[in-house]
Structures are given as C-alpha cells and as structure tokens.
Amino acid sequence: MTDPTDDAITTRTTADMSTALPSAYVRLLMDACWKAKSITELMPELPKGMKPRYVHVIDAIWHINAPHGQDTATARVGDVSAFLGVTTPSITKLIGEMADRGLLAKHADDTDRRAVTLTLIEQGLAIRKAYVADYHAHLGELFAGITPEACETVARTMTEALARMRADEWQTPQTKQEKRGNQETQDKQEAQGREDAAA
After folding, report:
1. CA-based angle 73:128:33, to the nearest 5?
2. How many domains does the chain have?
3. Claim to verify: residue 112 and residue 182 sit in the same structural domain
4. Is 11 inside any structural domain?
C-alpha cells in the first residue's frame, strides 16, 4: 500500500504533462482545495497561544522518536524539517518557541555538542494525544466508508498540484504590468542617485 505520508510526486510521461487538464476539472480541483481549507477550519480549537504548526511539529517528533520510545531523543531539527517538508530555519524558530512553552525538551548530543535532539514532555504528549491520536480516531469513525485508496488518491493529487503551483511563475497581465512599472521606477531612481552622486 502506498504510504499516505510520502510526498514523492508520481512521475508523469511527457505525453501526460503535455495534455492540458480541461477547465471543468481545474474548477473541480480548485473547489476541492477550498473545501480542504474549510475542513482545517473545523478542527478543534487549540488552547490559547498554541499555533497549529506546533501540533505538526509535535507529531513529527513523536513519529521520529517512536521506533526507540518517546523517552529516547533521536529526533533532530533537520529530521523534523525533512519530515514536514519545510525549511530548517523555520523549524528551528518554532522549536525554540515550543521549548519556551514547555512542550518539548532539547538535549545536547553527546557525540556532537552542536547538534540538538528533541523529546516531547508531558504537555507536548498531552497535546498530541488530544489533537492527533484521539481526534484522528474520531475522524476514522466519521469517515467510515471512505476507502484508503480514495485517501491516497486525494493526498497524491493535492501534493502534486501544490508542487506544480509552487514552481509555476504564471502571472496575470496586470501583475506583469505592475512589476514592469515598479522596475522602471526603481531604475529611474537608481539612475538619478548615480547622477546626484557624480554631481
């Protein structure tokens, strides 16, 4: 079975890539994206001061540490970054905030003093139980009848659409014109600055 957490994009043939998706299906896909956003807005409200991103980081640390037990610090910042598919600096900042809030503990690595490993502490484990384990178990019952294959298809399609849109540089004609105008203004200002400096 395909791992639903795998963010690898399915390789497409040249023929597949060159066949445009009909506009009706583009509309269907974009509408599904809006529905997905609405789903996230229906999730249980977090405690005051808790960011949704904290829950993602907590879950990542839990999964990385799981093979050795939650008391064994094996998760590193880079591991969490790779698990979530986000940049290391952004994760470093979040982990600092979460340590200050008592959600996780940072441990110096005995073999490399520059490296830091992470474990969840009581409050972090409680957040994961309530907002991941218990809530996902509830959703499992709620989503009875939706097949694993359907979930995999949705996850794969959304992942691929996101990757393509992130790499896309398409702009509306209005945006292009505005950028061109801004660049011309900047060029004029730089030229004027050089003239003033030479005077």
Report:
1. 115
2. 2
3. no
4. no
For the chain, give percent helix, strand, coil, nearest 5. 65, 5, 30
| Cβ atoms of residues 80 and 64 within 8 Å | yes
What's 151's domain CATH number? 1.10.10.10
- Whole-number Å distance between alpha carbons of 152 and 30: 18
Pair (186, 109) in one structural domain: no
* Contact in structure between 70 and 105 (CB atoms under 8 Å): no
Residue among 154, 195, 133 at smallest CA distance from 29? 154
User: Can you tell me the distance from the alpha carbon of 141 to that of 9, in angstroms, rounded to the nearest whole number?
Assistant: 29
**d(Cα 179, Cα 184) in Å, to the nearest integer?**
9
What's the mean pLDDT in 130-159?
A: 97
Rg of the Cα trace of the chain?
23
The answer on pLDDT for 14 being more than 70 is no
Could you read off the pLDDT of 73-112 as tens digits, one per residue? 899 999 999 999 899 999 999 999 999 999 999 998 777 7
Q: Is residue 124 part of a domain?
A: yes
Q: Domain range holding 37?
A: 22-168
